Amino acid sequence: MRMPRRSARHILDDSYALAYPALRSAVEEFPEAIQHPVGVHFGWWDRAGNALRSNPGKSLRSALVILSCQALGGSIRQALPAALAVEMVHNASLLHDDIIDNDRLRRGRASLWSAMGVPAAILAGDALFFGSLHALTGAPHADRTVPVFLAAVQNLIEGEYVDTLMEKDTTATLDDALDMIAGKTAELLSCACTLGAILSGAEDERVQHLSRFGLLLGVAFQCTDDVLGIWGDPEATGKPARSDLRSRKLSVPIALALNENGPPAERLRALYRREAPPTEAESRVIADELERHGVRGAVVDLARENAGEALAALHSCDPDPVTSEELAELTKMILQRSS
Amino acid sequence: MRMPRRSARHILDDSYALAYPALRSAVEEFPEAIQHPVGVHFGWWDRAGNALRSNPGKSLRSALVILSCQALGGSIRQALPAALAVEMVHNASLLHDDIIDNDRLRRGRASLWSAMGVPAAILAGDALFFGSLHALTGAPHADRTVPVFLAAVQNLIEGEYVDTLMEKDTTATLDDALDMIAGKTAELLSCACTLGAILSGAEDERVQHLSRFGLLLGVAFQCTDDVLGIWGDPEATGKPARSDLRSRKLSVPIALALNENGPPAERLRALYRREAPPTEAESRVIADELERHGVRGAVVDLARENAGEALAALHSCDPDPVTSEELAELTKMILQRSS
């Protein structure tokens, strides 16, 4: 018997409450010294080792694993090893990404490399990468889950690498940007759904519909993330205002704008090509100009289209109706972030 | 039928010739963009993508996998997936280690981070980590090999982390240093032998003798490496003279010396504690002083003892006699590096 439908916030809180105790137990089986920086990253203790009151977190990726498993008739217990694996690999990639992007803030705290140095952050990420495999290889259906997981993570790494190559690249097309975010973000969300579906024991065809749901949801998610990267409220995002413009990321709105004609696109190209990064004032002018020219609206529309197709894929797998409504709630929440 | 006994050099050349074409094929299955920095690391092409004439390499870890498999009656073909996995994980850890240790040189070339930047080196390492799992999870006996491999790699990461914590630590004991090198080096050599042995299809007891052989050989290997880190010829090591002293690594000879009494130990402690690193002249004085006080000799003896115990463990597994002689050749070569 499934519970009545929960709000998106409630679903994310619940999935955190389910996945994080398991995650903590898994980390406590790591060799002793490396547990310390890993726990500092998760906010379980401070650098001196003092326990911190764990802030109630949210966890989209483990929610997707659990709901995808439930959607096809599986249980939370069946889904947990994959929820764990996906959370670990996501956090490993955050640890390495923050070094790569030189980001000093993560979840409103100092990122691990800025708190404890690059070596600790590289190695804590490596430990989480291998921990994720440990969670998955010891669980049922490993012959089906592990190849999916390894391929998704290789695509995630590829997406991050392409992301670094594309920084300041003014020749990239919208398709280049969409390919890159598919690898960087959507593959792991798709993987989360696929693993949950496999662990339910469902047949391949139903699993594939959920894979497609996750991939399209991931594109929608990254589009809204890219909108927040330019027009997001620093209070809500925990990042500096217009951070993607300041660091000249090649995000979806930027790729859209670079492929336009006219003076705003020219100004943007000039700014992305020059040596010095945009000033605070320049980035505000560009953000406003892009919004006036409809770029923000176009990316929000793109997110909406992908979310719509995601829900169509979801319905094709003949999901449990309550779970399906909850996945639709999460989809709606993702769209609302940027509107 | 086994071939007649080969020299250590010949064994290492052969294992490179066997493992590296397989490694190159495996890397060619990585997503496209990330293949580039991985191939630059291996010296297959330059940064512009021009093919380089591959320098004939040596490969101790894949040699240990292959010989351990053959020692228990297995074939080269059976051993290859593990040879591949171990080479990949070793190179992944070199890529991350060179960032951590700020090493600009690797195999006489620019290390990847210094040639292509930290992001490329982090992500190329991550890709090789996941590639190693791909090689192993798709091969026979994955239920036995994967847990051994994951545990060894977690210990490797732990060893590297402890290594960073111990830098400039003048309170570490010899046992601390030996624990650290067990994790950092010996675990992976032991893992190489264990995986080769498992892939031969042998029973657990014989496998365990080879695990122990690899672990003890790894301790001997690191002891000789630590001797070279202080007294090695830069021509032969490809590293600056006395590099471990200059960077104030806590190596085995240093741990030995720090736990002595008397003026040389005091001078060493003072030098390890102060802010500025030792000058060229100071490091030469210390190296000479430690040698006169028998520290170099003591570490060479330690290497020899561990190598002797390693060979005893090897003989306990009732190995194929020709292969056993070849493993003894490799052991002898490791000892000769530092004498």
From TrEMBL, chains A, B:
This is Polyprenyl synthetase family protein. Belongs to the FPP/GGPP synthase family. InterPro entries: Isoprenoid_synthase_dom_sf (IPR008949), Polyprenyl_synt (IPR000092), Polyprenyl_synt_CS (IPR033749). PROSITE patterns: POLYPRENYL_SYNTHASE_1 (PS00723). The keyword Amino-acid biosynthesis does not apply. CDD domains: Trans_IPPS_HT. The lineage of its organism: Bacteria, Bacillati, Actinomycetota, Actinomycetes, Kitasatosporales. It comes from the Bacteria. Keywords: Magnesium, Metal-binding, Transferase. PANTHER family: GERANYLGERANYL DIPHOSPHATE SYNTHASE, GERANYLGERANYL PYROPHOSPHATE SYNTHASE. The keyword Transferase applies. It holds the Pfam family polyprenyl_synt.
